[in-house]
Specification:
- 2 copies of one chain form a homodimer.
- By secondary structure, chain A is an alpha/beta fold.
- Chain A has a domain at 4-13 and 68-110 and 234-447: Rossmann fold (3-Layer(aba) Sandwich).
- The first copy, chain A, has helices spanning 43-46, 52-59, 69-75, 87-93, 114-126, 140-152, 162-167, 169-177, 191-199, 207-219, 233-239, 241-252, 268-282, 300-303, 346-353, 364-378, 384-403, 421-428, 439-447, and strands spanning 5-7, 17-19, 64-66, 83-85, 98-103, 131-136, 155-161, 181-185, 224-226, 259-263, 289-295, 305-310, 319-324, 358-362, 408-413.
- In chain A, helix 16 crosses helix 17.
- The model of chain A has no long low-confidence stretch (mean pLDDT 95).
- At the A-B interface, helix 3, helix 6, helix 8, helix 16 and helix 18 of A face helix 3, helix 6, helix 8, helix 16 and helix 18 of B.
Chain lengths: 453, 453
Amino acid sequence: MSDTLKYTLPETAIPKTWYNIVADLPTPPPAVLHPGTGKPIGPDDLAPLFPMALILQEVSTEREIEIPRPVRDIYRLWRPSPLYRARRWERSLDTPARIYYKYEGVSPAGSHKPNTSVAQAFYNKEAGVKKLTTETGAGQWGSSLAFAGGLFGLEIDVYMVKVSYHQKPYRRALMETYGARCVASPSTETESGRAILAKDPECNGSLGIAISEAVEMAAKQDHVKYALGSVLNHVLLHQTIIGMETIEQLAMANDQADIVIACAGGGSNFAGLAFPFIGQALRGGKKPRVIAVEPAACPTLTRGRYAYDFGDTAHLTPLVKMHTLGSSFMPPGFHAGGLRYHGMSPLVSHLKELNLIEAVAYQQTECFKAAVAFARSEGIVPAPESSHAIKCALDQALRCKRDGKSEAIVVNLSGHGHFDMQAYSDYFAGKLQDRDYDQAELKRALEELPSVG
Amino acid sequence: MSDTLKYTLPETAIPKTWYNIVADLPTPPPAVLHPGTGKPIGPDDLAPLFPMALILQEVSTEREIEIPRPVRDIYRLWRPSPLYRARRWERSLDTPARIYYKYEGVSPAGSHKPNTSVAQAFYNKEAGVKKLTTETGAGQWGSSLAFAGGLFGLEIDVYMVKVSYHQKPYRRALMETYGARCVASPSTETESGRAILAKDPECNGSLGIAISEAVEMAAKQDHVKYALGSVLNHVLLHQTIIGMETIEQLAMANDQADIVIACAGGGSNFAGLAFPFIGQALRGGKKPRVIAVEPAACPTLTRGRYAYDFGDTAHLTPLVKMHTLGSSFMPPGFHAGGLRYHGMSPLVSHLKELNLIEAVAYQQTECFKAAVAFARSEGIVPAPESSHAIKCALDQALRCKRDGKSEAIVVNLSGHGHFDMQAYSDYFAGKLQDRDYDQAELKRALEELPSVG
């Protein structure tokens, strides 16, 4: 019996369409509202920020949306990504569970993010856009958009949360290697940034602030658009190739998922793996348990309110209904920068309300402990974000052991931790603290929710 | 016409044997000598350091050596590695050349090194060894052995060149994540280290010193052996799967190599790609040009003497005939830590003497410039070592353009640069200096060569 089982699809198996779960939902997600009028927005309202092709994907109800040939050609650099059976890890846990992990760290930028950055860069290039602005926290998204910008010859300006800009110089170097410009946020380049700095010159920044800066720069310049790495429908759509490939690969293994697990920050890697499985169930197929895993320090799905809120701090975005901690919520410091967003994708939030998914929150040290055990068994060092999914898979595998059940657990290993080794250093040095969110901070931020919808 | 062409072999195409070029050479390589007697050593002389299975591979003259099943099972985690046609890069260079790169950065440790670390860990485990000691410079080898040790349950002690230990904390964190112990060298743990520190308490260390420490600790303890990441015959042997796969993949592309290029520090990634091509030629097949690329700061093949020398600074190893700069040679500072070794693999050196290969040396800034252009076209950020091979491929592609020749250039992209982003930061900040080796230093070190052989 072989120890390592890798299910590799041929390039011809890269999906030719993305899967749009909206087509299969029993009720559509709530409308996106204009913050001034409180009325649903139309495609034209989004035109200053996004090319029309992406706006039409954002509001599409078609089940299948064709992936353009040039996008598929770039996907071939690393796709289909491998699905592994974690036999060594299973054995070390002595579990009867069958654990599979889909590994998205094989992309050049090291995470699932290029699945959408390549598509977004393509549609913007087609629309004559010269430059894209974006925000980044830990840097996974910024480097992925920088990578795609390099391939399509687009200028990329990345507003990087200031604390990460200084703590993660190597992520910044990666973006610059790909040809992007990286700016510490809050910056003096934007009105949003200057307003924040006037109040607090030492401000460390947040994802919400960086989004405000990137949106502002796109809205006020010609041939400049904005790109977002998660949250929006079209971003989640582009990620669904993860789950579509995984279903094919499980079929190669003659297996079907009993539990589907992914971490959730804005929701895109979670949706990427989970939506195709949920879609199968909605169309009458097997219904696995689907679990979104989030950090206890920023527990959007498990502790947030389902309400209309802004996507950014300066309130430049439309209002979306989502699980939110409030757009001014500041989580305590922890090491999974990709899971620090105050809100959750409206589509994922809607699925939670429909009871199609579960959510669970973990502390960071238990996640790093699971990630280290995983690395020693399987050889891959998970990104801190992905370690949350690994911890959940571990717990489910141990439950299977207790109950004597042989279930198939499928987990999205959304990226590697090569640029996050400081977090592992801190973990080994005993410097990591478990931090719950601050209850008073949450109360304060929720009181500022807009009174719309 | 598709832009990106990736040639992916099925797992069943992972070679079942390693290729031993000694079987095809017109003359055998010179004997390894005992430093005390000046006489050829036998297998028993190496037994304190290596398990007998590896010693027999070291002296084997068989053409094919079977890869054990458990080793192949672990290779399946990342092998067969992809061969890419660099169409975007070709187009940006406007060259008629066809450039192929074999990408070994897909391994969990990020380089070609696990091809041998897994094999060495397997044979040591089989022989009842409990712990392996080794040295590492940049950290590619140390983390690869740490990875393999984690899989086989072996303790790993890594003596890491002190300057790298402090400059590359993330490499160290990676080794610790895999469960290895990492010690700054020179250390106070060994006689070799203490002797160096007595003379120079501020010594930054060198690969030669770290080898002395690792060898000493293995030689004086039971159930402890030593593992080397390059130079030796059995290490090069394990890497030949790179070239064997590449030949298969070129056949998928209906192509044959005109030029084969790899960087050469100790010689293992170079041999891994090149030896199977040279072997084909020796057996009457097509004969490509084969180019080893080294740094101008440590130009072993292009400026070293072909002579018997020690492999380490404290002179604990046997004497091998190789291109050497002298075992006490100190190169100036430059960013490709994997190319800082004073010697070159005896087998690669022998092939150079037989005129079966060429060698060329480059300065580091021209290599980084080529690597950045490559990253913007192909999406992968090369390790500083691999950037030397990329620079050579670039020059050959431009020669093809000048001469109007459409040649097939095959280059080994031996690893990614995720743990070397400081070097890219320094490059962008204009902090990198081109440094030739010091001629007086070379003269001094060569005068200390032993008078044997």
